[in-house]
Amino acid sequence: MDGNPFLKIQSLGRALMLPIAVLPVAGLLLRLGQPDVFNIKMIADAGGAIFDNLPLLFAIGVAVGFAKDNNGVAGLAGAIGYLVQIAVMKDINDKLNMGVLSGIIAGVVAGLLYNRYKDIKLPDYLAFFGGKRFVPIVTGIVCVVLGIIFGHVWQPVQSAIDVAGHWLTTAGALGAFVFGVLNRLLLVTGLHHILNSLTWFVFGTFTPAGGAPVTGDLHRFFAGDPTAGTFMTGFFPVMMFGLPAACLAMYHEAPKERRAMVFGLLASMALTSFLTGVTEPIEFSFMFLAPVLYAIHALLTGLSLAICSALGIHLGFTFSAGFIDYVLNFGLSTKGWWAIPLGIVYALAYYGLFRFFIRKFNMATPGREPAAAEEQAESFATGGFVAPAAGAAVPRAQRYIAALGGAANLSVVDACTTRLRLSVVDPDKVSESELKSIGARGVLKRGTNNVQVIIGPEADIIADEMRTAIARGEGDAGKVVGVANVAASAAPAAAVVGAAAGAAAQNARSVQPAQAANQTQGGPLDPDPLRWLAVFGGAGNIVSLDAVAATRLRVVVSDASAVDRQRLASLDTAWVSTNTFHIVVGEAAQRYAQRLAERLPSQGGAAGAAAVPA
User: Fold this and answer.
1) Does residue 548 share a domain with residue 464?
2) Residue 491 and residue 478: Cα distance in Å, rounded?
């Protein structure tokens, strides 16, 4: 990961999503078991068990989220670290209560130690404890030290947090307004998860009758605190009514001839927001195209929280402020019905303001963007992308990988609730227009090599599909790769541009190597693959050469220093180990491999045959 601490904080925000994802199940069980619903104590206790052990869940979830391969060993290390840390702290000062912060800290430590020591090799007599087994051990040791440190220094920190939390929870409408505005403004950075975790799980304390103290707005609400919900209630009018009305306004402001094109997109986003409270797809559809509208949205969100606080309305959720959570938790609310009339007012406000500002300032909201056909063709021509042929079914994972510059351009593929979080080798190879044509709502570039693609609730599923495709070697199936440098040859460039337009895609794939050689001689490597042998260090330097994953040549060489890397770089090449590299050549991979094999002494060719000079 980039050394930028801002990006590391973003990683924490992403990791927090894993333990938070279990809360809807906990809230559902807790709610269904209440006396006013099904009155089944064991169901309520099942949900309560999750809430009672939130710090442990955060330790496990954050550790797994921080681990580069999301390995369960990191989760075990996180649990051990948390248990050790709080035991040591309690021995020093049994009045300390770090709440979920203790779990988050233990999880971060475990995840970072996992990434550092998962492949450690110990002396032979300690070999059993090497590798991943070493991670829980070193995490426990580190957390003993952390427990001692926190045991002595946490009291003033806890007092400062209590003061900040006390102000925010007792500032009434002002505190709610500040939180609401910051929550939306931080969304663009991904740091809103940090703010949410503090307000929903740390600030404010409530002790239920006969129970242990609980902290945080969300936890207190479900524990029966009648004052809780200040930092959740105001989201219901916005997410159930305001943003869906904004979608309707954007639909009505789109040109009539383009309304049909954007209707499905806007309708699905509006329904998702209303039912589940997932709003990022809507917000990122206008956040950068119309930043004034987003500023208005942030202010309206803060105002909604302030109004609900002033009116004494208290609602809560376990996932987000959608209709499903509203119905499930209505029985625990105070004046919860007020959210409906307030929401109707908010729908009118959002609809009117969005229509006015879009029309007044000609904002490029969905359906009103400039025609992107030329931009798309340029993207295809320079990046090598090709639209699927008629009837072709290119898996979406492969299309996303291709739009991100190919598998060789991706070093980390991860996701949070609604975004792909990626580390790329070359950000310039990422095609924003192609990503949006696949279905992405927006693209953010963070730091030197970090990219976020806003998709929606399917982000984690798509990330899994992409990782699977890359592992199987299928990551470049949606990409057309010329063997000659596009910029150096008019004929290959014309072929790629034609493929982008959809008129010559099949022709571009079926050009025989000999024909390509006749078309151009000016590239850094002759398109005839037989001439590549000299670049590989000669036929005698090749240990093996075969076609893999239908679109690649896999080449293993005995001496990597003999390879002409400068000339090899003109191809779409990825080194997968010290002596092995892959070249993406498209559907001709098998044919190229067969022709090259004829010239290799180890594979049936004439012994000692010299490579044709490049």
Assistant:
1) no
2) 21
Look at the chain and report how many structural domains it folds into: 3
Please tell me the predicted confidence (pLDDT) of residue 57: 92
What are the structure tokens assigned to 531, written together? 């001439």
Strand partners, 413: 422
Here the CATH number for the domain that contains residue 503 is 3.30.1360.60
Neighbours of 167 (CB within 10 A): 13
Specify whether the CB–CB gap between 252 and 358 falls below 8 A. Answer: no
pLDDT in tens, 437-479: 888 878 888 777 889 898 877 888 898 889 888 877 766 554 4
- Catalytic choice (143, 247, 308, 416): 416
Q: Find, among 22, 60, 28, the residue nearest to 44 by Cα.
A: 28
Please say whether the beta carbons of 536 and 555 come within 8 A. yes
Record the tokens describing residue 105, joined without a space.
């800290």
Contact status, residue 408 vs residue 425, Cβ threshold 8 Å:
yes
Which residue type is seen at 190?
G
Q: Given this model, what pLDDT does residue 7 score?
A: 56
- 466 and 387 within one domain: yes
Chain position carrying tokens 């279905």 = 439
Lowest mean pLDDT among 47-51, 194-198, 415-419: 415-419
User: Is there a domain that residue 43 lies in?
Assistant: yes
pLDDT in tens, 185-228: 888 766 787 788 889 988 888 888 877 888 899 989 998 899 89
- Is 510 a domain residue? yes
- 43-59 burial, b for 16+ CB within 10 Å, e for fewer? bbebbbebbbebbbbbb
* Domain containing residue 518: 486-603
499 three-class SS: helix
Residues 10 and 80 in one domain: yes
DSSP 84-124: HHHHHHHHH-TT---THHHHHHHHHHHHHHHHHHTT----G
Are residues 402 and 535 located together in one domain of the fold?
Answer: no
Q: What is the pTM of this model?
A: 0.57
- CA gap 220, 200 in Å, rounded: 9
Question: Can you name the residues that pair with 442 across neighbouring β-strands?
Answer: 454
- Grade residue 510 by pLDDT with cuts at 50, 70 and 90: very low
Cα separations (Å) of 543 from 119, 129, 174, 534?
Answer: 28, 36, 71, 14
Which tens digit of pLDDT belongs to each residue from 267-320? 988 998 999 888 887 887 888 778 899 999 999 999 999 999 999 999 999 888
Q: How many CB atoms lie within 10 A of CB 364?
A: 14
Residue with tokens 């670049």, as numbered in its chain: 535
Q: What is the mean pLDDT of the chain?
A: 79
User: How is residue 342 written in tokens?
Assistant: 């307030």
- Nearest Cα neighbor of 305 from 235, 234, 237 is 234
Element (H, E) at 329: helix 323-329
416 is catalytic: yes
Higher pLDDT: 561 or 390? It is 561
**Final residue of a domain: which of 427, 443, 471?**
471
